[in-house]
Amino acid sequence: MRRGRVAGTRMHAVSANPWTSINHARPRKGPRVGGYALQKQVAMGLRLKFNLILTIVFAAGLGVSAYISYDMLQSNARDEVIRNANIMIQAARAIRSYTVAEIRPKLASQLAHTFLPQTVPAYAATETLKRLPAEYHDFGYTEATLNPTNPRDRASDWQADLIRAFQQDPNAKSYSGVRQTPRGGALFIADPIRITDKACLTCHGEPANAPASLIKLYGRDNGFGWKLNEVVGAQVVSVPTAVATRKADRAFFTFIASLCSVFVVLYVVLNIMLGRLILRPITRMARAADEVSVGNFDIAEFEAGRKDEIGRLGVSFNRMRRSLKQAMGMIDGAG
Ligand code: HEC
């Protein structure tokens, strides 16, 4: 009798809640099974929502930081390659000026009988940078020239195009770009070689004016007929991009992988905390409320150990249960 009344009251009070209506409709025998299944479903719902939002936020964050960091790393890689190329071209210039200032005067007297290519800046720069250690074999330096004294310096097709571009545009100071080579991408920087000093024409003007020792060594067919102010060639350095790009890719994947592992750890820890701190106690409480709502006051009280919101809810629940039990007792007494 008492239970029927309580159940009836409950249905009346909370009939707007579809869950409770189902609860009420279930047979009295075996309420725990149905109630448990229902609460389990609710718990899954919270967890699912929580994880869904967590995943969406993470995916969005991952996307944005992947986009930004990839861009940044690639541009750093480009900067590094450009810096390397510039160091190389500056090193070539330093060798050239060292040769002019320190080597040539010492050996000038030799020129009359033996021509020493070591006194020629172009030779010194090219030969020195050729001696870079093996791991730098992809780094190249040439004084590419359309009509060179030494055939080694003859411009290849793409270098010849650059030289002609410099000839056509006197204001162009430098060209750079990335070329695909059989060994991968290579950044090149090309600066024009313009004859601005008449002294150059001693050896590169008319063969008749050139030192006899030079003619003896190089012949009179190549590297002559250059004109003042003419662009005769280009200093071309080329630096592989693959090393820097690989480094950037590795940094990118390391970053993304560590971000993902932080997320996985966070995900696991948050899920454990969600289960332990929120879902499990709430499920227990819902089950207890279920029991109390059908007049079963035999269940144990919640321990008052926790001081957080759930703990307070437990305390309130205990108090409510006691009040309800008291009220029921009074009603029963009256009836
Ligand atoms: C004493 C003679 C002499 C003078 C002066 C001289 N050169 Fe040369 N130059 C040479 C020789 C010889 C070579 C070839 C060196 C080699 O075997 O690599 C050469 C090579 C070069 C090259 C590389 C392309 C090539 O022809 O093989 C460039 C560029 C060049 N000279 C520019 C200049 C400029 C610019 C000046 C003036 C600032 C100048 N040279 C003055 C003798 C001279």
According to DSSP, the number of beta strands is: 4
Strand order of the largest sheet: 1-4-3-2
User: How helical, in percent, are the residues?
Assistant: 55-70%
CATH architecture of the largest domain: 2-Layer Sandwich
**Low-pLDDT stretches:** 1-35
Query: On the 0-100 scale, what is the average pLDDT?
Result: 86
Rounded to the nearest angstrom, the distance between the terminal CA atoms is 11 Å
Write the layout of secondary structure elements.
Blueprint: H1 2-14, H2 18-25, H3 31-107, H4 121-130, E1 140-145, H5 157-168, E2 175-181, E3 184-194, H6 201-204, H7 212-218, E4 231-240, H8 242-293, H9 309-334
Antiparallel strand pairs: 1-4, 2-3, 3-4
Helix pairs in contact: 3-4, 3-8, 8-9
Heme C (HEC) binds at residues 117, 120, 122-123, 126, 143, 145, 148-150, 153, 193, 195, 197, 199-200, 202-204, 214, 218, 223, 233.
Describe the protein's architecture and organization.
It is a single chain. The chain is of the alpha+beta class. The protein folds into two domains: 176 residues, Beta-Lactamase, CATH 3.30.450; 94 residues, Orthogonal Bundle (Helicase, Ruva Protein, domain 3). It is 62% helix and 10% strand. The protein has nine helices and four strands; from the N terminus they run ααααβαββααβαα. Strands 1-4-3-2 form a four-stranded antiparallel β-sheet. A hairpin with a 2-residue loop joins strand 2 and strand 3. Helix 8 runs parallel beside helix 9. The radius of gyration is 43 Å and the shape is rod-shaped. The N terminus is likely disordered. Bound molecules: heme C. Heme C binds next to helix 4, strand 1, helix 6 and helix 7.
